[in-house]
Design brief:
The structure is a single chain. The chain has 1 helix and 4 strands. The chain is of the alpha+beta class and 69 residues long. The chain has one domain. A 4-stranded mixed β-sheet has the order 3-2-1-4, with helices on one face.
Length: 69
């Protein structure tokens, strides 16, 4: 496994939630920097006794609703 991809969404309170698309890894953070640290920590913990991937991709998903006037 060369890369883990996390789908990241921003919560209404401003925090972020990240979910790995290929493994059961979830985490969150109040800021982008905190989320990055938490994702690295979660991946390290998940693969504590196995080889880890070389890269982690954070894919920010933005959902926006536009009003038609």
């Amino acid at each position: 496994m060369n890369e883990l991809v996390f789908q990241v969404t921003q919560e209404s309170d401003g925090g972020f939630v990240a979910e790995c698309l290929s493994e059961d890894i979830f985490t969150q953070g109040d800021t982008w920097d905190e989320l990055r640290r938490n994702v690295k920590e979660a991946v390290t913990g998940y693969f504590f006794d196995q080889p880890q991937s070389r890269a982690i991709r954070l894919h920010l998903v933005r959902d926006e609703v536009l009003a038609i006037a």
